Amino acid sequence: MGQFVLIEKYGTLYNFNDTQSEYLNLIYEIMETRKRGDKPVAYIHTYGCQQNVADGELIKGMLSKAGFEFEDEPDNADFILFNTCAVREHAEDRIFGNVGALKNLKRKYPDTLIALCGCMMEQKHIADRMYKSFPYVGLVFGTHALHLFPELLYKALSSGKRVYLRDNDDSLIHEGIPVKRDGSFKGWLPIMYGCNNFCTYCIVPYVRGRERSRKKDIILNEAREMIGKGYKDITLLGQNVNSYGKNLKDGVSFSQLISEIDSIEGDYWLRFMTSHPKDCTKELIDTIASSKHISKHLHLPFQSGSTRILKLMNRHYDRKKYLEIVNYAKERIPDVSLTSDVIVGFPGETYEDFKETLSLIREVEFTSLFTFIYSPRVGTPAAEMDDPISAEEKSKWFRELLDVQEEIASKRCRAMVGTTQRVLVESEKGKDGILNCRTSGNIIVEAKASPQLIGTFQDVEVTDAGNWILKGKIKE
Ligand code: SAH
Ligand code: SF4
Ligand code: F3S
Predict the structure, then answer these.
(1) What angle, rounded to 10 degrees, do the helices at 149-159 and 18-34 form?
(2) Average pLDDT for residues 414-431, to the nearest whole number?
(3) If exposure means fewest CB atoms within 10 Å of the residue's CB, which of 20, 360, 367, 433 is most exposed?
């Protein structure tokens, strides 16, 4: 059997070679006799962040090559896969519940293969527990085994035995895996994988491995291809995109990468996430300010407004530094839209610390926030820290934060009434002819128009504002 060749540690490519493609052909043949309907059907359920969504698109790409079609419900599926997320307990509980619920389906259709992959599966105690609790799960693999998916699936289908692979080498980048993107005009483009930051609350570095960047030319080619295919909104993905290139020999920085992508001709918006404040340079902000296609939107998680808590979180910046970057962004990029992630109730956080978070939110005036109550993750340093504040108290603080943010978002929305915004028309809201459109700053505008406009840029006059969304009229 052809083996992959390790060229060098951290960040080098590795091709999805002929061997894996050959497994896809073998799967195709097996499914010809095993499928329940006319075509083999797969149900892929992805949880978690865009990185997982992008992985799900690779899995769909591989399955498409093996002849699979996809459905949004598991009932007719020959293959069911849960692509899991480990970031908070709530995400994990849902997955345990949903896998448990498949027991009857598997009893009814014993040939249906049920599989689990993704971040939860890179944690030994969880993967073991899933494997033991759900004997009807036939395939388990972690994030570092994605490129071996055809081989693993083939083995599970052909042997009738359970297949389990996790803790594979995390030092490589696997290029050449076929992709089947979920959207036709909005798409994800991973530029790096893994994370080296080890924020003390976070499980991601443990389940996604060390940071490694894709080569610039590969990214540029993929961007060109997407723009050529008509993608209008492309988001570059990485856990900390600002440290892009650090492991590459060609010395390309993230700012250089996005300037080069920006110079590709076409009508499109370029976004990126996530930026880490410790690595967010003035150069990057200048690049956004002077670019043609980069949206005037910066998602810059601050996590806490208290310097004391930021230190405990191992974030490597303080409140002052965060505000300096944000103020520079406001100065250089008129109407910049700032969004962020924030955690309430980190171990040892006091109400005084929390008030600093509230005051930072008031000072920055974010467009929107992703808000989380701290969730202890086994194996992270924060899970070992004293955490005296009760869950009820944390929920109270959390609601207080939501109220403050709602007030700010609503004020920001009202200030936009009367302006004209360029939007990308994204989807139908319901059946009444209202379309959901999105501004460059990532705010939804509802406007009545023909669904034929979906996937196009339009100018919208903002006529009304809710707390989080705008209403508008598409200009003729
Ligand atoms: N790499 C990104 C985010 C990854 S996880 C970044 O650094 O910003 C997305 C968000 O989940 C984080 O920004 C954080 O706000 C939240 N998060 C991560 N671990 C968490 C935990 N244990 N409890 C609560 N929220 C958490
Ligand atoms: Fe987690 Fe911090 Fe890495 Fe983001 S930067 S993925 S929060 S460890
Ligand atoms: Fe979850 Fe993994 Fe993303 S833990 S948030 S899916 S990197």
Answers:
(1) 40
(2) 95
(3) 433
The ligand that comes nearest to the alpha carbon of residue 370 is 1
CB 95 within 8 A of CB 119: no
How far is 32 from 11, CA to CA, in rounded Å?
38
Beta strands in 91-231 (DSSP E): 113-118, 137-141, 163-165, 172-175, 186-190, 192-193, 212-213
This prediction's pTM: 0.94
Is the C-beta atom of 136 inside 6 A of ligand 1? no
- Compute the distance from residue 54 Cα to the ligand 3 centre, in Å: 11
pLDDT of 15 over the 80 cut: no
Give burial (CB, 10 Å; 0-12/13-18/19+) of 281. middle
pLDDT over threshold 60, residue 306: yes
121 CB within 6 A, ligand 3: no
Judge whether residue 386 has pLDDT over 90.
Answer: yes
How is residue 237 annotated by DSSP? Answer: E
* Nearest-ligand number for the alpha carbon of 91: 3
Q: Whose CA is nearest to atom 3 of ligand 3?
A: 49
Closest of 443, 444, 445 to residue 460, by C-alpha: 445
444-448 vs 269-273, strand pairing mode:
unpaired
- State the distance from the centre of ligand 3 to the C-alpha of 87, rounded, in angstroms: 6
Percent of the chain with pLDDT over 90: 88
What is the average per-residue pLDDT within 174-202? 96
**b/e burial code for range 450-460 (CB count within 10 A of at least 16 → b):** eeebbbebbeb
